[in-house]
Specification:
The complex is a heterodimer of chains A (about 1050) and B (about 170).
Chain A (H helix, E strand, L loop, with lengths): L3 H13 L3 H14 L6 H12 L3 H19 L6 H16 L8 H7 L5 H14 L7 H12 L4 H14 L5 H11 L5 H17 L8 H7 L5 H17 L8 H12 L8 E2 L2 E2 L1 H15 L3 H5 L2 H11 L9 H16 L4 H16 L3 H17 L3 H4 L1 H8 L4 H14 L5 H14 L3 H18 L3 H15 L5 H13 L6 H18 L7 H14 L8 H14 L4 H20 L8 H11 L4 H14 L3 H7 L19 H9 L8 H8 L8 H6 L29 H10 L4 H4 L5 H23 L9 H13 L9 H22 L5 H11 L3 H7 L32 H9 L5 H6 L3 H13 L8 H17 L1 H6 L7 H11 L23 H14 L9 H17 L12 H4 L1
Antiparallel strand pairs in A: 1-2
Helix pairs in contact in A: 3-4, 4-5, 5-7, 6-7, 7-9, 8-9, 8-10, 9-11, 10-11, 11-13, 12-13, 13-15, 14-15, 14-17, 15-18, 17-18, 18-19, 18-20, 19-20, 20-23, 22-23, 23-24, 24-25, 24-26, 25-26, 26-27, 26-28, 27-29, 28-29, 29-30, 29-31, 30-31, 31-33, 31-34, 32-33, 33-40, 38-40, 40-42, 41-42, 41-45, ...
Chain B lengths: L1 E8 L4 E6 L5 H16 L8 E3 L1 H4 L4 E7 L2 E7 L5 H19 L4 H6 L1 H11 E2 L2 E2 L4 H18 L3 H14 L1
Antiparallel strand pairs in B: 1-2, 1-5, 3-4, 4-5, 6-7
Helix pairs in contact in B: 3-5, 3-6, 5-6
């Protein structure tokens, strides 16, 4: 279907490329022609570049040329002919990718020239060199203004061309009047360009020409069709931005299209015997916009569309031309966009079939695209063309294949998902560029999440995606997969779950045989092996540990994978110990652990230490610390720490200073010179990272010599750093920044604390750098069941959880109800069920929480170790997750802790005003009684049993780590009876201190006390589905 | 709209580049390399469209035609018709052929400012202004006639004469 012209051109091109002899001839011809802009120098340059053997040589030639031009162009009195040539050479040099900015000013100067040739060259160069915000533009505006008024229409149109590129929003007013005047220019050539320039102004800044919108309508009636067609371009943009305003033009467009289609335009507008095809296409596009979703408007188009379709049909025996097919395709687009009649739809379908059956790849491509449009109206239509679609899918043409996959993606149902995803995966195998891979991977993940027929299939598909796309897959996908495994398909079918898990374990063990696996897949593998590797009983602990060591060894540079591996080993060891078996670490594992003990990454070090500690513990403790298969369990956290009430009360009774909220503390003490620390408080409220060096601890000057209970407070304060973190929650570390920060916090904290406790009256300030993290970490780590010690560790746990959660939340609006239903039926967990329980039940992994559940707690993600990029910590600080009151309440528990600690320490001076306390307590209490559920639920509970049990571990007096021990056993002196409660209470005391104040709102007091009692029993508020959860802990 | 018009040879050397939205020189080179690597990897009988959202952003396509040693590439967004642009390239090349009489790569290299003039008559500010080869010829002819008047260099007169002869 090539036209005669193409043949001629092709022949010509072939002639031109026959060989160097021909080329030389052509150069000779060029020289003879002496074509404008080229001198011998320029020809030599082009020739030299063309003959350059290497890139370096070319570079050299061009640089020499630049030097030469630089010198020549700056010479005084360069003849303008010469100057024009220099400018052309500059353009050429810049086209080759070299900087020619030194010559821009000369190009601008040249636009001032009176000679049209020079002026045009000047405009050409400036439009190529400068963008509309360049500094030199201001020098050219004046020239443009002058040229737009020129008598010579060629000068005017040259200026108009330049206007399109060079005029920016600020300079539009300077040329706008002239351009508008030109709309009445006698030459249609100029009018056309003026319309284009106005359109360009509209694109740059719609407001600048907003008063001219009617002008565009008028131009539509210009007597010259080419001007009218120029107006169509502008109108297309206008209509797409505001359809309603242009509905009344529908009749005009229809009548124009009718006239064009009926060959009423002069013959000159024909293109390959098709009348003004570009005008037809533009109008069809506009009609599609106007008729979308509007039956009345659409009906007006039916007859003209039929006419256009009829006229474009090729006559008998002759093939359709390319351009008539272009119009036909555009008709399909319009028909599928508007509210079309069945007849039109039938014709559209017929043309689509013809496109699909064509041998020409271009038409096939258009056919696939058209099919995608048609099936949105008539889904059954796809079936007739299955074969054609499959053909396109197997075509060697990448564009066609991608287009077809796009189509399939739109067509995916639960019945065909397996086939389609299979095709997508095999296509992904052939890809090498990251962009497309990312895109297709995300589509596969989406389809798999939406339509997965079984968990088994889902896991396998995800494995393939990870394998192929590797680290291009968002980490969230991996976490969803892990959560799916942890939760299982449903809550009841334990057997199916374990089957699923063991099959996952098997497939991962097999996978480890592969030479190169992406980091993210390895993380999943490590986690799964650690969690379930030994659960089935088919693999011995040694086997799995060996594999894990191999993984870590094979990726010496990947600290994240190493972290996952060591934690997995820890878990397996712990499971073994808990099962009463003797664990004898393999030598390779031992050396791996020793390596990590000396690792530069404090995170890895910490993990290794934990493993070491676990190896030294007895089965009964380990059992309590780590539950076999405890990953799916959840813990409710009561952020108000009501069980500490007693402690607070007794402290107050002993004359401790009541808790004062940070802000109020500042206000009330702003006048007190003695309260030195206020200045610091003042600096803190933003909680932004601070980068200056740590201040010397002497800042915490004691304001009053107070007698803090020395045995009590320092002890629990120092517990913070020394306590081991729970095992599972360490998995979360992904981001090395966080990895570093976590332990860092602990350390720094230790220093600050010790100093501070020497001078007890000052509120304890965390070192500035860590403040924000720490605060936030506390803010969202549930305080309920864990000891103070878990704070530091829980941040990696909780943050990921929150992170994942936010993502999900954001994703919600995109998820149609149908998808949720499907996902629910696929993966067992239904949101309704959860609601009914009043607890968040296990959340099925791939499906997202229903919108109504947005307030629900996140399931403990100890088993879903989402990495916590540092930024997310900050994001959470932004608090789009927390509802306002909660955010306020949990605003800064750390400060609240300070307040509490302040209390006893400044026991001597308990003259703190009551009002501020009260208001702060109101914050808490109002929260507590008005939105208890919210307050419980919005704070992501990320503490697992592990936290709790760890608390127990430490409080049982077992030395968890080789770190400074500061009287762990002192904990027994703690007012709360149970050591656990004592420990856990420390944390809770921080934020519940306000609730413990004497001034309290009536009804809520009861509530909180009741909760308090319960909490004290179990250490957490057991509002979860299984209150017996902690039974094993407490006998 | 049309985002860019490019002509490059089969070795990846740019012969004419025109971007309707400004790109820095470095970015232009990047884009050219990316376009070339896509085009050079495609066989001749495949379709003339390549989705280029990794090069030019979402919903952009390359529409290209391969003539002898040259690729003619138009980068378009959703508002243009792919098949229409294919014909526009045809118009462009036909016009070039009329201007240079059996146009070849070297004609374009040596006269790229002329080629720019021709392209400016067809595409302006990213919109198609003229689709008739004859109309473009007329406009370009007018310009060159005037240029001849404005420029007394005999070589140039000859050049235009040559072109005029080729028309007749």
């Amino acid at each position: 279907m090539e036209s005669w012209a193409t043949d001629i051109v092709k022949k010509a091109f072939k002639q031109g490329s026959q060989g160097t002899v021909d080329q030389l001839k052509t150069i000779g011809r060029e020289l003879a022609m002496g074509s404008q802009g080229s001198s011998k120098d320029f020809l030599d340059l082009v020739k030299a570049i063309g003959e350059a053997k290497s890139k370096a040589e070319e570079e050299r030639i061009v640089l020499a040329e630049i030097e030469l031009l630089k010198k020549r162009i700056m010479e005084p009195d360069v003849p303008r002919k010469k100057m024009k040539e220099y400018i052309i050479r500059l353009v050429y040099v810049e086209m080759l990718g070299h900087d020619a900015s030194f010559g821009y000013i000369y190009a601008v100067k040249m636009t001032h020239d009176d000679n049209l040739l020079c002026k045009k060259s000047g405009y050409l160069a400036t439009t190529l060199f400068l963008n509309e915000d360049h500094d030199l533009i201001i020098l050219i505006v004046n020239t443009i203004q002058k040229d737009l008024k020129s008598d010579n229409y060629l000068v005017v149109s040259a200026a108009l061309t330049a206007v399109c590129k060079l005029i920016n929003e600020e300079t539009i007013p300077a040329v706008l009047p002239q351009v508008i005047d030109l709309l009445g220019h006698p030459k249609e050539h100029v009018r056309k360009k003026a319309v284009m320039a106005l359109h360009r102004f509209y694109q740059r800044s719609p407001s600048s020409v907003s008063h001219l919108l009617t002008k565009f309508r008028q131009i539509l009636c210009d007597k010259d069709p080419s001007v009218m067609s120029a107006a169509l371009c502008a109108l297309f943009d206008l209509v797409s931005s505001d359809v309603k305003a242009f509905k009344n033009l529908t009749a005009s467009f229809v009548s124009i299209l009718k006239q064009v289609a009926e060959h009423r335009l002069p013959k000159a507008y024909d293109y390959h015997r098709t009348p003004a095809p570009f005008v037809q296409i533009k109008i069809l596009k506009i009609l599609a916009l106007l008729g979308a979703g509007d039956r009345h408007t659409s009906e007006n188009m039916y007859s003209v569309l039929l006419e256009v379709l009829k006229r474009c049909e090729p006559g008998k025996g002759e093939p359709a031309t390319n351009i008539s097919n272009a119009i036909l395709y555009e008709c399909i687009c319009t028909i599928t966009a508007i509210v079309a009649s069945p007849k039109l739809l039938g014709m559209a379908a017929e043309i689509t079939s013809r496109f699909l059956k064509s041998d020409n790849h271009n038409y096939k491509y258009m056919g696939i695209d058209a099919l995608g449009r048609v099936i949105q109206i008539n889904p059954d239509f796809a079936e007739q063309h299955q074969l054609a679609v499959i053909d396109c899918l197997e075509d060697q043409d990448d564009t066609l294949k991608r287009k077809t996959l796009d189509l399939l993606y739109k067509m995916t149902k639960s019945t065909n998902v397996e086939v389609i995803v299979d095709h997508m995966i095999s296509y992904m195998r052939t890809l090498s560029d990251a962009h497309n891979k990312t895109e297709i991977a995300s589509r596969i993940v989406e389809l798999a999440e939406r339509f997965a027929p079984s968990n088994q299939w889902f896991i396998q598909t995800m494995n393939q995606v990870f394998e192929l796309a590797g680290d291009l897959v968002p980490a969230k996908v991996a976490h969803d997969l892990m959560r799916l495994l942890a939760k299982g398909a449903g809550e009841d079918d334990e057997e199916a779950d374990s089957l699923l898990r063991s099959s996952a374990v098997e497939s991962y063990l097999q996978l480890l045989g592969e030479p190169k696996l992406p980091s993210i897949l390895l993380q999943v593998v490590c986690w799964v092996l650690g969690e379930f590797g030994t659960a089935g009983g088919t693999h011995s602990a040694d086997d799995i540990i060996g594999k894990l060591c191999d993984v870590a060894e094979a990726h010496p540079g990947d600290t994240v994978v190493k972290g996952y591996a060591i934690t997995a080993i820890t878990k397996i060891c712990a499971f073994e110990i808990a099962a009463g078996r003797q664990v004898q670490l393999l030598p390779e594992c031992r050396s791996f652990m020793d390596d990590l003990l000396a690792s530069h990454s404090t995170d890895l070090q910490q993990r290794a230490y934990e493993l070491q500690v676990f190896l030294g513990l007895g089965p009964d403790i380990v059992q309590k610390v780590l539950h076999v298969n405890g990953s799916g369990e959840e813990i409710e956290i009561d952020t108000d720490l009501p069980f500490l009430q007693e402690f607070v009360d007794s402290s107050l009774a002993n004359g401790a200073r009541p808790y004062v909220h940070e802000n109020e503390r500042f206000e009330m003490s702003s006048g007190m010179s003695s309260f030195v620390s206020t200045s610091r408080t003042q600096q803190e409220p933003s909680h932004a990272l601070r980068f200056e060096a740590y201040e010397t601890p002497t800042v915490h000057t004691p304001s009053a010599s107070s007698s803090a209970p020395p045995s009590l407070l320092p002890d629990f304060q120092e517990k913070k750093p020394e306590s081991p973190r729970s095992l599972r929650n360490q998995l979360a570390a992904d981001n090395s920044q966080v990895d570093l920060l976590g332990p860092e916090i602990t350390r720094l904290r230790l220093d600050g604390v010790q100093k501070k406790w020497g001078r007890p009256s000052a509120p304890s300030q965390p070192p500035p750098v860590t403040t924000s993290n720490f605060d936030q970490e506390i803010e969202r780590s549930g305080n309920g069941g864990s000891g103070v010690s878990e704070r530091a560790s829980s941040n990696r746990e909780s943050t990921p959880a929150v992170h994942v959660y936010t993502e999900k939340k954001k994703a919600q609006p995109e998820i149609p109800a149908e998808k949720q239903r499907l996902a629910a039926s696929l993966f067992g967990g239904s949101s309704g069920k959860r609601d009914a329980n009043g607890v968040k039940g296990s959340k099925p992994a791939p499906n997202r929480p229903a919108a109504g559940n947005s307030k629900e707690k996140i399931p403990s993600t100890a088993q879903a170790p989402a990495p916590a990029p540092l930024m997310d910590l900050m994001d959470m600080g932004g608090g789009d997750l927390f509802s306002a009151p909660v955010a306020k309440a949990s605003y800064d528990p750390f400060k609240e802790l300070e307040g509490l600690l302040d209390g006893p320490s400044t026991a001597a001076s308990t003259s703190t005003p009551a009002a501020p306390q009260k208001s702060s307590s109101i914050d808490f209490m109002s929260l507590y009684d008005s939105t208890p559920v919210v307050s419980h639920n919005t704070v992501p509970s990320t503490n697992d049993h592990d936290f709790l049990s760890l608390g127990l571990t430490s409080s049982s007096g077992i030395e968890p780590m080789n770190r400074p021990e500061a009287g762990l056993l002192d904990l027994n002196e703690f007012p709360a009876n149970s050591p656990l409660a004592g420990l856990a209470g420390l944390e809770q005391s921080s934020s519940s201190s306000s609730t413990s104040l004497p001034e309290r709102k009536g009804p809520s007091l009861q509530d909180s006390l009741q909760k308090d009692a319960t909490t004290r029993q179990v250490g957490v508020t057991p509002t979860g589905a299984n209150p017996a959860l902690f039974q094993d802990l407490f006998g | 709209m049309i985002l860019a018009s490019l002509i490059m040879n089969t070795q990846g050397k740019p012969r004419l580049t025109k971007f309707y939205e400004h790109l820095s020189v470095e970015r232009q080179q990047e884009v050219l390399r990316a376009v070339y690597s896509v085009l050079s990897s495609r066989a001749d009988n495949l379709c003339s469209f390549v989705e280029s959202d990794d090069i030019f952003g979402p919903d952009t396509k390359l529409v290209y035609k391969h003539f002898a040693t040259l690729y003619f590439v138009f980068v378009i967004d959703n508002a243009e018709s792919e098949l229409g642009i294919l014909d526009l390239i045809q118009v462009f090349v036909e016009t070039l052929d009329r201007c240079f009489k059996n146009v070849c790569e070297l004609d374009i290299v040596h006269n790229f400012n002329k080629v720019h003039t021709i392209l400016d008559e067809i595409v302006m500010g990213g919109q198609v202004v003229e689709t008739s080869s004859a109309e473009v010829m007329k406009a370009v002819q007018d310009i060159w006639k005037l240029e001849r008047v404005g420029d007394l260099n005999p070589a140039n007169v000859k050049g235009i004469g040559h072109y005029r002869n080729s028309r007749s």
